[in-house]
Amino acid sequence: MTSHVARTSLVADVKPVRRRGSGWHAYLFVGPSLFGVIAFLLLPMLIVLVLSLFDWELLSSPEFVGLDNYRRLAGDGQAWHSLGVTVAYVLLCIPLQTVLALALAMLLNQRIKGVRFYRSLFVVPWMATPIVLALIWSWIFDPREGAINSALALVGVTGPDWLSDPTWALPAVALVSIWQYTGYNMLFFLAGLQGIPKELHDAAETDGASPAQRFWRVTLPLLNPTMFFVSVTNLIGAFQVFDTVFAMTDGGPSHTTEVLNFRIYQTAFKEFDFGYAATLSTLLFLIIFLVTMAQVRFFGKRTTYDLS
Amino acid sequence: MAKRILLYAVLAVGAFVSVFPYLLVVLTAFKTQGQLSETAPWLPGLPPTVDNLAKMLAGDFPRYLLNTAVMTALLTAGQLVFTTFAAYAFARLRFRGRDALFWLFVATMMVPSAVTMIPLFLIMRQLDLVNTWYGLLAPYVLGTPYGIFLMRQFFKTLPAGLEEAARIDGAGPLTILVRVMLPLCRPALGTLAIITVISSWNSFLWPLIITSGDDTKVITVAIATLKQGIGVDYNLMMAGSLIALVPMVAIFVFFQKHIVRSVVLTGLK
């Protein structure tokens, strides 16, 4: 991404007519945002790292404990359970969400009457406050009055007590996330599909490629940058899920929906165990970082994703 | 023909699923407690009542709504101003350390917000800004890496000749940005504004952590607290949700084209 060629072209497209003057202004222009990034993103990152080496319960004074928190983490079944829940949640959401979004985008990339109307309707779930949606959905999942079980009752099926049932609570939460983000991701795929030159498909068709072949050999490879963006942002988002869990299940029943991010919140702001919460945060960050890097490598082999 | 019918059937079902929860919000907000237990959730309560909405609007809710609106307006204004300056510099000006700084911004996009919540809270506590407007706004008002990335991409698409002409006329970078570039940026600025409005209006975790008093409480937190009381009053909760939803849906309807374009812009070059 930072190849020599890219660097040169980056610099070459700016004509330095007033070199000194523009340099001075540039720092002024970048200054406030740079201050924001340093003060509210980089500094907190460093604090988390440092804090994870301390035992601190807010009211007491911090006590340096070295790697004790990390040793505690190694034997903390609850934390690993939370990580397992997070991974299960990600695996429930992401594949289905991505496939649905792509399928929907291909549907809505055709000539259809009222296509704009449908595109907007599918994006509407993204618009609303996650916390509000979570509350609405917890009502839809209500075992007695809720819409889902009422509908199931019409066909003679007794639905489970979704959010209080250890088996169904996590899938129910995942379903809400799929519902909310499928349409939003559909927009990205739609943008990607519209960026594919029509001639390529025509040429493939002339060469006798079947629709399936055209999808796997033309569409999908050319959607690679979109796929990269969608999977990276979605995975980062899914690993960080909080609002939905907070509002729908509060981590329950019996911790079955207690994702790591929720565990961090509990540890810090309910148990006031800030040092250990920082250790858990470091764990979450490391995992997200590794997963993102893995995606960069996976997609990097297939595409030239140029951030500049 | 059968294929066509299937296509429309799929779309209709999908659209219904997308909108159904919103439909329930509207129906429930206009039902009395009695109607809620008597009628099926997806049937309207007759006659509809505006009592729930009236009750919500008579309490502290308008105040929270106002807080949310103020927060959204300030964050959006801050984002538009600071992000534009930074993005312009990154895209069109030449200065030492430019590329390194830009990569720093891009890298911070990867940092999960949950990771920074605790230290942010501690910083605000140290500065005595917990439960204040400053604490609520500070982390986001100076622009976001995401916004800078978006705007930079846009600035880079504008022709360089525009600036040269202005420079020859003796204009400095500030004049060029305000007089020449900004008028050309209106679609991109609109996009950035919509994204910021929606994400600010919906923000929950940071307001939940940093605020506790009525002076700074926002609607997302207020609605969440409604659920924690004894016995959930669905009618009131749905009325509150409806009030919170209406402005966003209105914005969406008005700016639908921009939202789609925003995705194409950030989409991914």
UniProtKB/TrEMBL annotation, chain A:
The chain crosses the membrane at residues 26-54, 87-108, 120-140, 168-191, 222-242, 274-294. It comes from the Bacteria. SUPFAM superfamilies: MetI-like. It is a multi-pass membrane protein. Gene3D superfamilies: MetI-like. Residues 83-295 form the ABC transmembrane type-1 domain. It is found in: Cell membrane. Its main location: membrane. The keyword Hydrolase does not apply. Keywords: Cell membrane, Membrane, Sugar transport, Transmembrane, Transmembrane helix, Transport. Belongs to the binding-protein-dependent transport system permease family. This is Multiple sugar transport system permease protein/sn-glycerol 3-phosphate transport system permease protein. It comes from Nonomuraea angiospora.
TrEMBL record, chain B:
The keyword Membrane applies. This is Multiple sugar transport system permease protein. Residues 65-255 form the ABC transmembrane type-1 domain. It comes from the Bacteria. Pfam families: BPD_transp_1. It is a multi-pass membrane protein. It comes from Nonomuraea angiospora. Keywords: Cell membrane, Membrane, Sugar transport, Transmembrane, Transmembrane helix, Transport. Its main location: membrane. The keyword Membrane applies. It is found in: Cell membrane. The chain crosses the membrane at residues 7-30, 64-90, 102-124, 136-155, 236-255. Belongs to the binding-protein-dependent transport system permease family.
